[in-house]
Amino acid sequence: MSTLLLITSAPSSIHAWHAFGLAQALQTKNQQFRVFFYQDGVSVANALQWVPDDQRNLTSEWQKLGIRLPVCVSAALARGITDQENAQRHHISSANLAQGFELVGLGELADAVQSAERLIQF
Q1: Which of 5, 7, 72, 97 is an active site residue?
Q2: 27 lies in which domain range?
Q3: pTM of the model
Q4: Tell me, what's the pLDDT at 1?
Q5: For position 57, which CATH number holds?
Q6: Which residues of 79-116 are buried (b: 16+ CB within 10 A; e: fewer)?
Q7: Is 72 a catalytic residue?
């Protein structure tokens, strides 16, 4: 069964951590899944976030999974997150997209929704 995890909660939310926990569990069980970061969930892709040493860093936890990490480009840009290509296109001084994350359009979310057998939003 393929699962789409639609992550719309900010990284500071317990819901964002639950999404990560489910992704870990699905990966451990070799179950097919995809993720998509949308709305406030895109903030996890901000490389400039600071996390205290005594707290887990959700960005690096996602990076450790070694999966594709698509992020809605419009939601990211609206929250000040960009890759180098979009920084140049929109005259933004520098890129801050965390390594391993990828800016994509909403068409990718539509494709993921169509191909998933279940969708879970966090």
Answers
A1: 72
A2: 3-121
A3: 0.95
A4: 83
A5: 3.40.1260.10
A6: bebbbeebbeeeebeeebbbebbebbeeebbeebeeeb
A7: yes
